Amino acid sequence: MSLQAFKQQFKQELSGAYENIELNSLLSILIQHVTGWNQIQQVLHKDESLDKNIQAQLQAAIKELKLGKPIQYITGKAWFMGNNYTVNENVLIPRPETEELVDWIIEYANIIDKPLQILDIGTGSGCIPIALKLALPNCMIAGLDISDEALNVAKLNAEALKADISWMQEDILDTTYLPNQFDIIVSNPPYIPFKENVNMQVQVKNFEPNIALFVTNEDPLVFYRTIARLGKQYLSPKGQLFFEMHYDQGRALLALFDEMGYHAELRQDMFGKDRMLRASLKH
Ligand SMILES: C[S@@+](CC[C@H](N)C(=O)[O-])C[C@H]1O[C@@H](n2cnc3c(N)ncnc32)[C@H](O)[C@@H]1O
Protein backbone atom coordinates (compact mmCIF):
# COMPACT_ATOMS: atom_id res chain seq x y z
CA MET A 1 0.00 0.00 0.00
CA SER A 2 1.21 3.56 -0.81
CA LEU A 3 0.91 6.63 1.43
CA GLN A 4 -1.63 8.06 -0.99
CA ALA A 5 -3.80 4.92 -0.73
CA PHE A 6 -3.47 4.94 3.08
CA LYS A 7 -4.64 8.56 3.22
CA GLN A 8 -7.74 7.65 1.22
CA GLN A 9 -8.51 4.66 3.45
CA PHE A 10 -7.93 6.79 6.61
CA LYS A 11 -10.39 9.45 5.44
CA GLN A 12 -13.00 6.91 4.37
CA GLU A 13 -12.90 5.02 7.64
CA LEU A 14 -12.79 8.02 9.99
CA SER A 15 -14.88 10.63 8.17
CA GLY A 16 -17.92 9.86 10.36
CA ALA A 17 -15.99 10.48 13.57
CA TYR A 18 -13.97 13.63 12.78
CA GLU A 19 -14.37 16.91 10.83
CA ASN A 20 -12.35 17.16 7.60
CA ILE A 21 -9.90 19.72 8.96
CA GLU A 22 -9.26 17.53 12.04
CA LEU A 23 -8.79 14.45 9.81
CA ASN A 24 -6.04 16.21 7.83
CA SER A 25 -4.28 17.27 11.01
CA LEU A 26 -4.52 13.75 12.53
CA LEU A 27 -3.20 12.23 9.29
CA SER A 28 -0.23 14.54 9.16
CA ILE A 29 0.69 13.99 12.85
CA LEU A 30 0.30 10.22 12.53
CA ILE A 31 2.29 9.84 9.32
CA GLN A 32 5.09 12.03 10.62
CA HIS A 33 5.17 10.00 13.86
CA VAL A 34 5.23 6.59 12.14
CA THR A 35 7.44 7.37 9.12
CA GLY A 36 9.48 10.31 10.42
CA TRP A 37 8.69 12.13 7.15
CA ASN A 38 7.86 15.85 7.21
CA GLN A 39 5.18 17.37 4.94
CA ILE A 40 7.50 17.72 1.94
CA GLN A 41 8.88 14.19 2.29
CA GLN A 42 5.31 12.89 2.57
CA VAL A 43 4.58 14.39 -0.87
CA LEU A 44 7.84 13.03 -2.37
CA HIS A 45 7.15 9.49 -1.07
CA LYS A 46 3.39 9.44 -1.69
CA ASP A 47 3.35 6.75 -4.43
CA GLU A 48 6.01 4.42 -3.00
CA SER A 49 4.97 1.13 -1.46
CA LEU A 50 5.19 1.43 2.34
CA ASP A 51 7.29 -0.90 4.46
CA LYS A 52 5.16 -3.72 6.05
CA ASN A 53 5.98 -2.61 9.60
CA ILE A 54 4.91 0.97 8.84
CA GLN A 55 1.69 -0.26 7.24
CA ALA A 56 0.93 -2.33 10.36
CA GLN A 57 1.47 0.69 12.64
CA LEU A 58 -0.74 2.90 10.48
CA GLN A 59 -3.54 0.29 10.41
CA ALA A 60 -3.32 -0.15 14.19
CA ALA A 61 -3.64 3.63 14.60
CA ILE A 62 -6.85 3.67 12.51
CA LYS A 63 -8.35 1.07 14.85
CA GLU A 64 -7.32 3.04 17.94
CA LEU A 65 -8.64 6.34 16.58
CA LYS A 66 -11.95 4.63 15.75
CA LEU A 67 -12.24 3.61 19.40
CA GLY A 68 -11.64 7.25 20.36
CA LYS A 69 -8.03 7.03 21.57
CA PRO A 70 -6.56 10.54 21.52
CA ILE A 71 -3.77 11.00 18.95
CA GLN A 72 -1.46 12.19 21.77
CA TYR A 73 -1.68 8.76 23.44
CA ILE A 74 -0.98 7.07 20.08
CA THR A 75 2.12 9.15 19.37
CA GLY A 76 3.03 9.49 23.09
CA LYS A 77 3.58 13.24 22.59
CA ALA A 78 1.70 16.47 23.35
CA TRP A 79 2.60 20.12 22.91
CA PHE A 80 2.54 22.53 25.84
CA MET A 81 3.77 26.13 25.64
CA GLY A 82 5.99 25.41 22.65
CA ASN A 83 7.57 22.21 23.97
CA ASN A 84 6.89 18.57 23.24
CA TYR A 85 6.00 16.48 26.32
CA THR A 86 5.87 12.71 26.67
CA VAL A 87 2.39 11.55 27.67
CA ASN A 88 0.75 8.20 28.34
CA GLU A 89 -2.51 6.92 29.85
CA ASN A 90 -1.25 7.75 33.36
CA VAL A 91 -1.29 11.50 32.76
CA LEU A 92 -3.80 14.05 31.55
CA ILE A 93 -3.06 15.46 28.10
CA PRO A 94 -2.00 19.09 28.77
CA ARG A 95 -4.69 21.57 27.68
CA PRO A 96 -4.51 25.07 26.17
CA GLU A 97 -6.47 26.44 29.18
CA THR A 98 -3.59 25.34 31.40
CA GLU A 99 -1.19 27.32 29.22
CA GLU A 100 -3.28 30.38 30.07
CA LEU A 101 -2.94 29.61 33.79
CA VAL A 102 0.84 29.29 33.44
CA ASP A 103 0.92 32.60 31.52
CA TRP A 104 -0.92 34.29 34.40
CA ILE A 105 1.61 32.99 36.94
CA ILE A 106 4.56 34.08 34.78
CA GLU A 107 2.98 37.54 34.43
CA TYR A 108 2.62 37.74 38.25
CA ALA A 109 6.14 36.39 38.97
CA ASN A 110 7.67 38.88 36.55
CA ILE A 111 6.00 41.75 38.44
CA ILE A 112 7.29 40.44 41.79
CA ASP A 113 10.71 40.04 40.18
CA LYS A 114 12.47 37.93 42.81
CA PRO A 115 13.23 34.19 43.02
CA LEU A 116 10.05 32.50 44.21
CA GLN A 117 9.30 29.12 45.79
CA ILE A 118 6.52 27.49 43.77
CA LEU A 119 4.59 24.23 44.32
CA ASP A 120 2.36 22.56 41.73
CA ILE A 121 -0.20 20.16 43.24
CA GLY A 122 -1.49 17.39 40.93
CA THR A 123 1.36 17.76 38.50
CA GLY A 124 0.52 14.95 36.01
CA SER A 125 2.90 15.19 33.05
CA GLY A 126 4.78 17.95 34.91
CA CYS A 127 3.74 20.48 32.28
CA ILE A 128 3.02 23.28 34.80
CA PRO A 129 6.23 23.21 36.89
CA ILE A 130 8.43 22.52 33.86
CA ALA A 131 6.95 25.39 31.82
CA LEU A 132 7.32 27.66 34.86
CA LYS A 133 10.95 26.64 35.43
CA LEU A 134 11.80 27.25 31.76
CA ALA A 135 10.25 30.73 31.93
CA LEU A 136 11.44 31.58 35.46
CA PRO A 137 14.81 29.83 35.85
CA ASN A 138 15.61 31.55 39.18
CA CYS A 139 12.53 30.15 40.92
CA MET A 140 12.66 26.95 43.01
CA ILE A 141 9.89 24.72 41.78
CA ALA A 142 8.33 21.51 43.12
CA GLY A 143 5.68 19.19 41.67
CA LEU A 144 3.46 16.86 43.70
CA ASP A 145 1.18 14.02 42.62
CA ILE A 146 -0.50 11.04 44.22
CA SER A 147 0.42 8.85 41.24
CA ASP A 148 3.89 7.33 40.97
CA GLU A 149 3.20 6.54 37.31
CA ALA A 150 2.41 10.20 36.61
CA LEU A 151 5.53 11.32 38.48
CA ASN A 152 7.65 8.99 36.33
CA VAL A 153 6.34 10.76 33.24
CA ALA A 154 6.92 14.17 34.84
CA LYS A 155 10.52 13.25 35.70
CA LEU A 156 11.14 12.07 32.16
CA ASN A 157 9.82 15.36 30.77
CA ALA A 158 11.87 17.43 33.20
CA GLU A 159 15.00 15.56 32.21
CA ALA A 160 14.30 15.92 28.48
CA LEU A 161 13.61 19.65 28.83
CA LYS A 162 16.46 20.22 31.31
CA ALA A 163 14.22 21.65 34.03
CA ASP A 164 15.44 21.20 37.60
CA ILE A 165 12.33 20.39 39.68
CA SER A 166 11.81 18.64 43.05
CA TRP A 167 9.17 15.92 43.01
CA MET A 168 6.93 14.65 45.82
CA GLN A 169 4.58 11.70 45.90
CA GLU A 170 1.70 12.57 48.26
CA ASP A 171 -2.05 12.28 48.58
CA ILE A 172 -2.83 15.96 49.06
CA LEU A 173 -6.20 15.13 50.60
CA ASP A 174 -4.34 13.32 53.35
CA THR A 175 -1.42 15.71 53.83
CA THR A 176 -0.93 17.99 56.81
CA TYR A 177 2.75 18.73 56.21
CA LEU A 178 4.60 20.42 53.34
CA PRO A 179 8.41 20.71 53.41
CA ASN A 180 8.49 24.45 52.78
CA GLN A 181 6.77 27.82 52.71
CA PHE A 182 5.70 28.68 49.16
CA ASP A 183 5.21 32.03 47.45
CA ILE A 184 2.92 30.39 44.92
CA ILE A 185 0.90 27.20 45.16
CA VAL A 186 -0.68 26.28 41.84
CA SER A 187 -3.05 23.45 41.04
CA ASN A 188 -5.14 22.14 38.19
CA PRO A 189 -6.85 19.57 40.38
CA PRO A 190 -9.47 16.98 39.45
CA TYR A 191 -12.73 19.00 39.33
CA ILE A 192 -15.34 17.20 37.21
CA PRO A 193 -18.23 15.82 39.28
CA PHE A 194 -18.58 12.14 38.42
CA LYS A 195 -22.20 12.60 37.29
CA GLU A 196 -20.97 14.66 34.30
CA ASN A 197 -19.20 11.68 32.77
CA VAL A 198 -22.32 10.72 30.79
CA ASN A 199 -21.99 13.89 28.67
CA MET A 200 -18.25 13.73 28.18
CA GLN A 201 -16.38 12.89 24.96
CA VAL A 202 -15.33 9.22 24.66
CA GLN A 203 -11.76 10.43 24.02
CA VAL A 204 -11.63 11.95 27.50
CA LYS A 205 -13.70 9.64 29.70
CA ASN A 206 -12.49 6.33 28.24
CA PHE A 207 -8.82 7.17 27.85
CA GLU A 208 -7.67 9.88 30.26
CA PRO A 209 -7.02 8.78 33.86
CA ASN A 210 -10.13 8.94 36.05
CA ILE A 211 -8.02 10.02 39.01
CA ALA A 212 -6.98 13.13 37.07
CA LEU A 213 -10.52 14.09 36.08
CA PHE A 214 -13.19 13.23 38.58
CA VAL A 215 -14.32 14.25 42.03
CA THR A 216 -17.35 13.02 43.97
CA ASN A 217 -20.74 14.56 43.19
CA GLU A 218 -21.13 15.26 46.91
CA ASP A 219 -17.93 17.32 47.35
CA PRO A 220 -16.65 18.63 43.99
CA LEU A 221 -14.58 21.43 45.59
CA VAL A 222 -12.67 19.16 47.97
CA PHE A 223 -9.25 19.90 46.38
CA TYR A 224 -9.75 23.68 46.53
CA ARG A 225 -10.84 23.56 50.19
CA THR A 226 -7.93 21.29 51.14
CA ILE A 227 -5.35 23.44 49.36
CA ALA A 228 -6.85 26.64 50.83
CA ARG A 229 -6.48 25.05 54.28
CA LEU A 230 -2.84 24.10 53.61
CA GLY A 231 -2.23 27.59 52.20
CA LYS A 232 -2.98 29.14 55.59
CA GLN A 233 0.04 27.32 56.99
CA TYR A 234 2.37 27.01 54.02
CA LEU A 235 1.92 30.21 51.99
CA SER A 236 4.62 32.78 52.67
CA PRO A 237 3.45 36.33 53.56
CA LYS A 238 1.80 37.75 50.38
CA GLY A 239 1.77 34.20 48.95
CA GLN A 240 -0.71 33.40 46.19
CA LEU A 241 -2.82 30.40 45.22
CA PHE A 242 -3.48 29.89 41.49
CA PHE A 243 -6.02 27.33 40.23
CA GLU A 244 -7.61 26.03 37.10
CA MET A 245 -11.32 25.35 37.61
CA HIS A 246 -14.57 24.09 36.12
CA TYR A 247 -16.22 26.93 34.17
CA ASP A 248 -19.39 26.83 36.25
CA GLN A 249 -17.79 26.65 39.71
CA GLY A 250 -16.77 30.34 39.79
CA ARG A 251 -19.42 31.59 42.22
CA ALA A 252 -19.11 28.61 44.53
CA LEU A 253 -15.32 28.98 44.59
CA LEU A 254 -15.43 32.73 45.28
CA ALA A 255 -17.77 32.02 48.22
CA LEU A 256 -15.55 29.20 49.49
CA PHE A 257 -12.35 31.26 49.40
CA ASP A 258 -14.05 34.26 51.00
CA GLU A 259 -15.34 32.06 53.81
CA MET A 260 -11.86 30.62 54.32
CA GLY A 261 -10.28 34.06 54.72
CA TYR A 262 -8.98 34.73 51.20
CA HIS A 263 -9.44 37.50 48.64
CA ALA A 264 -10.09 35.71 45.34
CA GLU A 265 -10.50 36.74 41.72
CA LEU A 266 -11.55 34.80 38.62
CA ARG A 267 -10.01 34.96 35.17
CA GLN A 268 -11.66 33.86 31.91
CA ASP A 269 -10.13 31.58 29.29
CA MET A 270 -9.86 32.40 25.56
CA PHE A 271 -13.52 31.35 25.12
CA GLY A 272 -14.67 33.83 27.77
CA LYS A 273 -15.45 31.16 30.37
CA ASP A 274 -14.45 31.42 34.03
CA ARG A 275 -11.47 29.06 34.09
CA MET A 276 -8.83 30.33 36.53
CA LEU A 277 -8.77 31.65 40.05
CA ARG A 278 -6.18 33.49 42.11
CA ALA A 279 -6.42 33.86 45.88
CA SER A 280 -4.37 35.47 48.65
CA LEU A 281 -4.99 35.57 52.39
CA LYS A 282 -6.85 38.57 53.85
CA HIS A 283 -4.70 40.26 56.47
C1 LIG B 1 -6.44 17.55 36.11
S1 LIG B 1 -4.93 16.60 36.34
C2 LIG B 1 -3.73 17.88 36.09
C3 LIG B 1 -2.44 17.40 35.48
C4 LIG B 1 -1.48 18.53 35.06
N1 LIG B 1 -1.18 19.41 36.17
C5 LIG B 1 -2.07 19.35 33.94
O1 LIG B 1 -2.51 20.48 34.18
O2 LIG B 1 -2.12 18.85 32.79
C6 LIG B 1 -4.95 16.34 38.09
C7 LIG B 1 -3.76 15.60 38.68
O3 LIG B 1 -3.99 15.46 40.10
C8 LIG B 1 -3.50 14.20 40.53
N2 LIG B 1 -4.23 13.83 41.76
C9 LIG B 1 -5.47 13.29 41.87
N3 LIG B 1 -5.78 13.10 43.14
C10 LIG B 1 -4.72 13.53 43.88
C11 LIG B 1 -4.45 13.59 45.28
N4 LIG B 1 -5.35 13.16 46.17
N5 LIG B 1 -3.25 14.08 45.68
C12 LIG B 1 -2.34 14.52 44.77
N6 LIG B 1 -2.55 14.50 43.44
C13 LIG B 1 -3.73 14.01 43.00
C14 LIG B 1 -3.77 13.27 39.36
O4 LIG B 1 -2.92 12.13 39.42
C15 LIG B 1 -3.51 14.19 38.17
O5 LIG B 1 -2.18 14.07 37.73
What does this structure look like?
With 283 residues, this protein is of the alpha/beta class. It has two domains: 3-67; 77-281, Rossmann fold (3-Layer(aba) Sandwich), CATH 3.40.50. 44% of the residues lie in helices and 20% in strands. It is built from twelve helices and eleven strands. The protein has a seven-stranded mixed β-sheet with strand order 5-4-3-6-9-11-10, with helices on both faces. A two-stranded antiparallel sheet has the order 1-2. It has a two-stranded parallel sheet with strand order 7-8. The protein binds S-adenosylmethionine (SAM). The site of S-adenosylmethionine has 21 residues, from helix 7 and helix 10.
Set down the secondary structure blueprint.
Blueprint: H1 3-14, H2 20-35, H3 39-44, H4 52-67, H5 71-75, E1 77-80, E2 83-86, H6 96-112, E3 117-121, H7 127-135, E4 140-145, H8 148-160, E5 166-169, E6 182-187, E7 192-193, H9 202-205, H10 210-213, E8 214-215, H11 222-234, E9 235-244, H12 250-259, E10 262-268, E11 274-281
Parallel strand pairs: 3-4, 3-6, 4-5, 6-9, 7-8
Antiparallel strand pairs: 1-2, 9-11, 10-11
Helix pairs in contact: 1-2, 1-4, 2-4, 6-7
Bound molecules: S-adenosylmethionine (SAM).
S-adenosylmethionine is lined by residues 92, 94, 98, 122-125, 127-128, 145-147, 150, 171-173, 188-190, 211-212.
Work out the number of β strands.
11
Q: What's the alpha carbon Rg, rounded to whole Å?
A: 21 Å
- CATH architect. name of the largest domain: 3-Layer(aba) Sandwich
Could you say which small molecules are bound to this protein? S-adenosylmethionine
User: Do you know the CATH topology of the largest domain?
Assistant: Rossmann fold
**Biggest sheet, open or closed, and with what strands and sense?**
7 strands, mixed
Query: Any idea what the shape is?
Result: elongated
Spell the H/E element sequence. HHHHHEEHEHEHEEEHHEHEHEE
What oligomeric state is this?
Answer: single chain
Based on helices, strands and strand pairing, what is the structural class? Answer: alpha/beta
Question: What is the averaged pLDDT score?
Answer: 96
Strand order of the largest sheet: 5-4-3-6-9-11-10
Unreliable residue runs:
none
CATH structural class of the largest domain: Alpha Beta
- Strand composition percent: 15-25%
